[in-house]
Amino acid sequence: MLRAAEEIAKVLGEDAVCYDADVLEHHGHSEWSTSNSPGRAVAVVYPKSTEDVSAIARICHGRSVPMVPFGAGSSVEGNFSQPHSGICVDFSYMDKIVAFHPDDMDVVVQPGVNWVNLNNHIASSGLFAPMDPSPTATVGGMVSTNCSGTNAFRYGTMKDWVLNLTVVLADGTVIKTRRRPRKTSAGYNLTALFVGAEGTLGMVTEATLKLAPLPQDTSVAVVPFPSIHAAAAAATTLIRSGIQLAALEIMDDQQMAILNAHGSPTVRKRHWAEQPTLFLKFGGTPDSIAADTARVAALLTPSNSTTPDPPALHIARTKEEAADLWAARKESLFTMTSIRPPAHEMWSTDVAVPISRLAEIIAWSKAECSALGIFASVVGHVGDGNFHVAMTYDTRDAAQKEAVGKCVKRMMEKALEMEGTVSGEHGIGIGKKGCLVDELGEEAIAVMRRVKRAVDPRGVMNPGKVFH
Ligand SMILES: Cc1cc2nc3c(=O)[nH]c(=O)nc-3n(C[C@H](O)[C@H](O)[C@H](O)COP(=O)(O)OP(=O)(O)OC[C@H]3O[C@@H](n4cnc5c(N)ncnc54)[C@H](O)[C@@H]3O)c2cc1C
Predict the structure, then answer these.
(1) 95, 145, 155, 331: which to mutate for ligand 1, most atoms within 8 A of CB?
(2) Could you tell me which of 42, 16, 12 has the C-alpha nearest to residue 27?
(3) What pLDDT, on the 0 to 100 scale, is given for residue 310?
(4) How many A from CA of 120 to the centre of ligand 1?
(5) pLDDT tens across 186-218, in order?
(6) Which residue's CA is the closest to the ligand 1 atom numbered 31?
(7) Is 326 in the same domain as 229?
(8) Do 188 and 225 share a domain, yes or no?
(9) What are phi and psi of 282, to 5 degrees?
(10) CA dihedral 442, 447, 448, 452 (to 10 degrees)
(11) Containing domain of residue 80, as a range?
């Protein structure tokens, strides 16, 4: 492995290879994840072009050395960890916008482009890339985890926004999966093969992304409910109403209490009802938003309601207030992480079920967590039937960690019982390999293995991920 790193330094230059222990640690371990591995890469390499990546792959392939692609390291299932060591390929110097085609509503980018920077850069065109995972995430990682976020309710997931990919295969071969038109039915859908592959099939070195028109205006509303069931039932009503919400999110009573106690100054400008709360985002013209908010208000508080205490929909009165309300949802994970007691870690998991089953599984998951007597809270992309449970446990207490692990496993089983999935948006990594078999069955995994062997016969691309 070290010889491969030395060889890479000869081709890319000494500056392109780093052996620093802190850098290796940063690239091999995630504070956000429980699915870490003790393995570390022997070196981190920094390519600047597709040719550099191809050279890295040829060298590593020749020596059967693992390559682990790295974007911003924000993934949470041990997706970029290095259980088999190897060379970590960091794309942070491949952060250029290669071509912007506003008339075609697409943009060609290198994988190290951060989505927030991209959107700031093109904002004046009235277009944006809609996926919104961690604000630090890069296009390469977003493509490779098929990420989504709060905007997925309106815009779908990353797979819906990728027009084509340039990919360096394990042996250094460079392919482009398709060209730039919005549609094609030419040949196998190779783009889809690499979206969500978690870097196990090749390294993305360029992506053409579709862009959406920025809504002319946006607004935000929040509405608390007496129970998770009531909140989820209201969410179902809203989804079925056909109102084009831009996002529909849920936070449980624990999360709302955390906002009051530990939210940022922006978030603590108001006192939040410590009840399960829906967060709604509206997008469109000022007129359409006014019509949508009126319809939502009518649906949530029907005039013939016999409920003595109907839920109070609070609609942001100003742009600033809308931003503050939404910040509460976006900051939730950061706030949870920042208040962990010493020696405690957070086990965060992500499942998705058909939307009609969401209330049931959230209520069930909360009951499981409270039976453990640990701190746990729920946030979710309720519009997509996708939610996250974050559980805090004491790392010094092996029994507690084991109990939390078993609880997560039961949550996966419950999601599968409901025809759901063990990962709505975070991927499989090393954390959920066993559950993927439960979800898809041995035969489907065997097909995945055959595909993997066809493009990576030596098993050097991000080994040990997705399946055993
Ligand atoms: C605070 C926070 C909030 C989050 N919210 C969301 C959310 O709402 N929705 C959501 O979907 N996710 C969310 N995530 C998870 C994370 O942001 C996403 O998984 C994101 O897509 C990862 O991007 P990254 O650049 O950090 O990739 P990394 O973590 O660096 O890598 C992810 C995977 O992609 C592979 N990879 C990276 N670059 C390439 C490349 N060029 N070619 C091939 N493979 C590559 C890696 O090997 C790894 O398997 C959140 C994470 C955090 C910490």
Answers:
(1) 145
(2) 42
(3) 63
(4) 20
(5) 999 999 999 999 999 999 999 999 999 999 999
(6) 141
(7) yes
(8) no
(9) -110, 145
(10) 130
(11) 2-92
